[in-house]
Structures are given as C-alpha cells and as structure tokens.
What we know:
The protein is of the alpha+beta class. The protein is built from 16 helices and 38 strands. The strands form nine sheets. An eight-stranded antiparallel sheet has the order 14-13-10-11-12-15-22-20. Strands 27-26-25-24-30-29-28 form a seven-stranded antiparallel sheet, covered by helices on one side. A five-stranded parallel sheet has the order 3-2-1-4-5. Helix 4 links the parallel strand 4 and strand 5. The longest helix has 26 residues, at 460-485. The protein starts with a strand and ends in a 6-residue tail after the last strand. Mean pLDDT is 91; it is low at 488-503 and 566-576. One adenosine-5'-diphosphate (ADP) is lined by residues 131, 156, 158, 162-165, 200-203, 206, 208, 232, 235, 275, 277, 292-293, 441. The site of one adenosine-5'-diphosphate has 15 residues, from helix 1.
Amino acid sequence: MFASVLIANRGEIACRIARTARKLGLRSIAVYSDADAGALHTRLCDEAYRLGPAPARESYLAIDKLVELARRAGAQCIHPGYGFLSENAEFAEACAAAGIVFVGPSPGAIRAMGLKGQAKKLMEHAGVPVVPGYHGERQETKFLAQKAEEVGYPVLIKAVAGGGGRGMRRVEEPAEFEAALQSAIREAQSAFGNGQVLIEKYIASPRHVEIQVFGDRHGSAMHLFERDCSLQRRHQKVIEEAPAPGMTPEVRAAMGKAAVEAAKAVGYVGAGTVEFIVDGSRGLRRDAFWFMEMNTRLQVEHPVTEAITGLDLVEWQFRVAAGEKLPSLDVAMAGHAVEARVYAEDPERGFLPSTGRIIALEFPARDGIRVDAGVEQGTQVTPFYDPLIAKVIAHGATRREALEALASALDRTLVAGPRTNLAFLAALCRAEDFRKAQFDTGFIDRNLAALGAVPKEPDRAAAAKGVAELLAREAKRIAAHARSASEEAASPWNSLDGFQLCGARAVWVPVSINGAPASASASYGPQGISVSIDGIAAAPDALAFEAENAVYVLRHGRQTLVRIKDFEAIDVDHLDTGGLVAAPMHGKVLAILVRPGASVSKGQRLAVIEAMKMEHALIAPFDGTVGEISATPGGQVAEGAKVMTIEAKKPEPV
Ligand code: ADP
Ligand code: ADP
Ligand code: MG
C-alpha cells in the first residue's frame, strides 16, 4: 500500500477520499485554489498546498502545478476524484512520467472511452449492445440529417466529447434537426473544444441504469451491481439508488456481463461505470438495454453501491492502484440505498446556482443516514465550481424504508445562506409515482410544479418570524444600551425591555422579503413581539438565523431572506429594473444574441451566461429595443453587472 496520496480535487469528494486515506494510514495531501483557502478538505488532510487562483484552469486543472506539487510533497500516488482531471489521459501520463501512480485506469483506457463515438464502435466489436444510431466520422449537415431519418425520430444529437449533459439535443422531427444540430455543435465546441457529434435513437421511457465495475492489474474484472440514476434534470443526475427498481437476477446478470466485457475490452484497471440506457416502457428486459458511455473514474453516486455492498470503493481504488488483486470473494447485496445531491441552487428560479456564505448548517446524525459534505458553517459557496455541496444517502431494508429515511433526513437538514434544493429533493422522495417506481428520465420535467420547482409566493409566515427575530434583537440592544447608560443611578429602565415602552400599539415596519419591499405589522404585548405580514402571523415552526444585517428563515426546506428597511439590495427578480438586463450571477458571457437597435419581444433570449458549469439565458423583460450592450462574448461579468439595456416600446399613436 502507498504511504501518501495527493488528492487532486476539492469539495465533498476530496473530503471523502481523505477519510479512506486516513483509514488506510496514508499521509494525505490536499491542494486548494485561492477560493478554497482554509476549506474543509484542506483541514481533513495532513497537509495542504496552494495551487493558484480560483479559476479551475489555473488551479484544479493545472496539470503541471499538480504534478510538481505532488513531487515536492513526496506523494506516491494522486487520486483525481471525479470531474476536473479525473478523465484526462494527459494528466494520467504526466503522473506516470513523474513516477507517481495515477489512481485510475491507464491513459489508453481513458482515451478509448473518452469519445463517445469511438467508445461505441469499440463496444460493438466487443459484442456489447449499443444505442442504435450513427457514430461515424462524417459530419455534414445533410448526411447527419439523412442518418437521423434512418434512425427514426425522435433522435438525440450528442457531442462525442460530451459530459455533464452538455452538447446534447433531443430532436422530435426533421424540421427541427438543422437548428438543433447547429446549437449542439456550438455548445460542444465551446464546452469541450470539439464540435463532433453523433446521432442516437431517443429511447422511449428512458431509464438510466449503470453498472459499477472494477478491474485490476492482473486481468480480472468484476461488477458490483447496478445503480438506477433515472431521476435527472437537464441530463444530470439528481437522485440515484441501488438496486434498480424492477431489476431481476437475469437482467442484472446480462447487464453485469456486458459491463465487464466493456471493461475487459479496454484492459480496465480501477473503478469505472458503464452507463446503459434502458427502455423502461415494458420493465427491465434482457434485450432492452444499450451502452451509452463508460465513465473512467469514481462516480458521484458511488455511496449507494457502498451502502448495499458494505464495501469502501475508494479503498479498493487504492488497493488496485497499488497492484493488489481484486478480492475473489462473492460480494453480496443487502437492502436498498438512495442518494440525493444537495446543490446550492434555487429550484424556484429555474435552478439558478446560488452563492454566498453558509450561515448555518446542520445534518441529521442517525442510523442508516450517511452525509458526504464538502462544506461547513462559514464556507463561502463561490461561483467558480460545481454547486454540489453535499450528498445525503439513506440505507434501509426496503426501497420504501430508504426513501422515507432520506425524505426525513432532508427535512432535518438545515442550510442557511445560499439557497438549496433540499425541499425539492424531499418532495421527489415523496412523489407518489416515484415511490411506486413508476418513473423515467422525464419524471422531474413533467412534475416541476408538483415538486415545488416553480416561482412561488414568498413565505410570509416565515418572513414575519424573521422580522420578529430582528425586532427582538433590536429590543435587546436598546435595553442593554439603556441599562449601561443608567448603571450608576438605579433606574426603572433597568427592568424594562425597550419595546415595552411602545405599549400594545401596532407599528408598521418597512421590510424586504427576498429583496422585494413589504410591510410588517408589529405589536408589543405582554408576551413579547408579535409580527404579521399581510395578515399572516409569524410561523412558530420557522428557524431564523441572523447574519450580515439580515435574517435567513428556514421553513419546510425553503429559505426566506428578510431585511428591515433595506430597499437598496439588488434583486434582479423583483426590482423594477427599468430595462436593465443584469447578470444574475458572476460568470462568463458565452453569447450575445442581439445587436444594439434590434427590436425584441418579452421573453426573448438576449444573452447566455455560463456559471458553475451551467448556462443561463438572459431574457427580455418586456417588448422593446436593445439599447447599449456592455458585455462581450468570452468576457466575465460580476453578479448584478449590466449586460445590456432594453428600451420599452413607445405606445402606438392612436
Ligand atoms: P458527468 O458524470 O455527468 O459526465 P462530471 O464528470 O463533470 O459529469 O461530474 C459529475 C458530477 O459531479 C457533476 O454533475 C457535478 O455535479 C459533480 N462535480 C464534478 N466535479 C466536481 C467537483 N470538483 N466538486 C464537486 N462536484 C463536482
Ligand atoms: P453525459 O456524458 O453527458 O453523461 P450520456 O451519454 O451519459 O452523456 O447521457 C446523459 C443522459 O442523457 C443519460 O443519463 C440519459 O438520461 C440521457 N440519454 C442519453 N442517451 C439517450 C438516449 N439514446 N435516449 C434517451 N435518453 C438518453
Ligand atoms: Mg453519462
């Protein structure tokens, strides 16, 4: 076994790897960017070294810096985690060249599986069923349109270099093909520097079922059962579970065999995942699953496999990388496990990533619940990286039990500061059809409203509670002030709470709720302060956390931000922006879709901004004409920065 490891990652996965490194007695070496100085992962490791500035390109993706640091720190191996350089063959090569073991497969295996088209060809040769479609070299529009016809609509256009659901377009009919192709190529080119695409049959009632595989340096490969990752949004996993609902021993054996063959075809070493798409319309069947891609790394959702097998997959990764043989034991499976990805994002605003300092954080500690977090109270969630902040995993005897345990664990998880998808995740766990295992990859999109992922009225009961907390704090301050001012002369002020001076009369307090102005009515009676907003009284079950002149109120998994007399705060959602189109967050301008003077209609896409690995379209607030454009494609914009202005259409003369 190695004596030391450098963990070339951040966040929850760096923390996760550090835990196993410690268990195995490895000296763990963390790296961090300026945005992560002092972050949890740097403190969980034995040593930590600065990589560079916040942008990933200059830190977590800087191969030379990483290898140099590893060499200087005397790391025997480098664990890449997932994301970042985990599937980068050059990085694996650079490690080898420096005499450091890369914890993962060979550069050759990474390359063989790196491009989806090539990987599919390889799988066809290995006898693994692949999704019907075209994955050749020719890329002319006419030719691809012809192939799409042959494959049969609906089809999926995919970037061969794609990942994270990017560069993918579903096309319903021939008339839409060309436009979809152009936009897929554009996105692929900008995200991966490779505009090549393939065409696939869009599988009906698709379910994503993947097989965890492991290979060793001695030619063995095996699988550790499946995971169902069909609950997705924008082709990205949200909830994953193991085993897959409706899986039979026969289908599992067939999929497992295909996955092991896929691994063997590339001489795979270490942990990998073979992803299949399944036609779920008639249940899981031996003849209705097709290879999509292989991820040559540890997967985000590996904990559900660990839960049902009792294994530590990171330990296996280290052992295999150190040259040990895969254990020849028969791995058994017990119970059911479900994982939810907790993201700093706002489901009520189109899942816009949310940044800011974590004011309060609490995870439930109970049997059967595992929390893999990468943040702690005080952590600043920045726009530089993925918004995943934690994973909550439940393990139960049955699927129903696991889902119930997960839902209640999510209810008990508190995150104040950035907005999160906690309420949305809990609603998903409780969705009736999902509970009955009637779902496919379109489930979330079809049920957004039922899952609460739509703009909603602010929670006035929670806001009122927040106002009450702020006023109570103010009352204490006044009382303390009064006491200290009258310390010498024993004074009747001593026994008084500042607000009792007001009697039971109600006063109006100007407040802002999530940035929008409102008015709270506060009265001070013998029981203290009671507050209501629009006649709605403060909710006793809301939890309030004060920070930075505001109160973050959590109730039913939603966060309400309350300030008193704060009308200056910029909130692009609620302020009358007077035609200002501003960046909702710090990010990179991918495209400006209009020109000065162009006339636009309400809702039209004006520009695209990328932040936290996602694209966000800025849309016209009303019909009008484009005024000044202040941002340029490729440039960075700060949160709230002006991108352009729209001048309202003058009313037509009558
Ligand atoms: P995919 O598996 O969908 O191709 P990636 O390999 O980019 O996508 O990453 C898998 C998932 O891991 C993403 O959905 C993202 O949420 C998350 N992720 C990737 N890198 C990191 C990281 N360094 N820190 C936290 N989360 C990450
Ligand atoms: P990525 O590298 O972005 O993870 P994948 O090829 O794994 O790309 O596809 C991502 C997701 O898109 C899958 O999990 C699945 O939900 C959906 N998908 C991919 N291919 C198909 C298909 N042929 N039919 C239906 N859905 C698909
Ligand atoms: Mg995938």
